[in-house]
Write a structure and sequence with these properties.
With 501 residues, the chain is mainly beta. The protein has six helices and 32 strands. The relative contact order is 0.13.
Amino acid sequence: MWFDPDYAEMHYKFKLPWSLLYKKEPEIILDAPFQVVPGEEAKLFIVIREANRFPVTIESFEAVFTCGTTRIAKTQSIREEVHTPFRFIPIPCGKLPAGNYSVEASVTVQIDGRKKKIRRFNLTGLKQKPLQIAVLHEEPPKPSDFIVGDTHVHTYISADPVEFGASPAVLQQAAKSVGLDFVFCTDHSYDFAFSSENYMIRTDASVRYQKLRAEIAALPEYPKMIAGEEVSAGNSQGQNVHLLFPGNPFYVPGEGDCGRKWFQNQPTLSIPQIVSQTELPCFAAHPKEQMGKLERLVFRRGDWHEEDLFKNSKNPIAALEFWNGSRDKGFELGRQFWISELEKGNFILPLGGNDAHGDLNEYTGVKIPLFKLKQSHAHVFGYVRTVVQGSDPITAFRGKNLYITDGPALWWSCEGEIVNFHFKSTADFGSLKTLTVFAQENRGSQKEAPIAAPLEKISDFEAVAKVSLAGKNYVRAEAETSFQRFALTSACPAQKDNVRT
């Protein structure tokens, strides 16, 4: 992967006279949350960028929602002149019956006096596929004392020659639609340091960061939106890795892989220099993400290693975000890295996020600068989620009990030395297919392994597995449904002072 998923920028030419992606139009994208929980209305968004360079009049919107034999049409007159760098127009579409909808959406615009109808987006070379929206029959399952969030999301601050994100207000509305309690807005540290109108001109990063914090603080209290950063930090090998720092009250610089200085790509600050400044939890972003040789060379990007976790310090790395939008090779390698830490007695938390830059329904991004775009249903906002025990989205990560999921609930509770793994799903996410409990025995360097766990099946969608902690260092569980939806828990350690019940 060359670049992160994002809304695709199509105007930047890198000082060249041409680009196959270039159009004398603003980027115009129709987007919608991939999921709507019961009680919420369906909502689409018209996303417009760089209308300050290419003014546009949005005349009208229309959409047809199709689910089986159900066909619902929506039209709306807008008649709005747009001439700002960013504009996000919400289109309420009312409450829909439960079901999986295909949505053919279009917007009629005027650019330079020419009327044009745009279906889905005006990006070059991509298939204009219908939006896909799942209106759920039931609330996504979760225990009552847990909160659910997307821990890796980008706003419009993360804008540069290849990408841009959504506004915090749009993300909050989308979070409500898909059923989130909180969102970590973790914008690139280097994007705060440059102007969004000219990516090569420096600006006061601290001022931009505080403006974003104020903008987010002015939003409604729920779902909880938290400003933060995805800081480019130096690992133990002098390479750039990304560190998620939600809730930081001050700006943290990190420009090592900003792409604006070419081979001048040394990290600004090391991981210890960053985490030693705070008592807030910090997370390793996509610790084993796969990338090409060119990305490693030009941006000096690398992987997270054991030495980078700052163990045995006052503020060690709290979690590994190895589930970053999809269960790809980065997920598998990151999961193994996490397990290796558990086996060494470091009960670091797993983390699930999406690295979404807007991307409410699918992501569109630059595959090859100047030449080619890409699209995928990976890295969709709110799809992979972290569900943590507690009520505060920051301090909850000082505990040990959470799970990461793309649908079903899977969590643990303790009764003395007995650990109960609770599974719960719905018809929207599929029935229980497998539930596997893993344990590490008290044998020094013993590897973890699956163990027998008696399963009490309450229904096709609910079950409890019981195991004993006696003679074990930790236990944890993974589950998959008939719809290939997946969840895994954090480790429940044997040390009583580490266990939250």
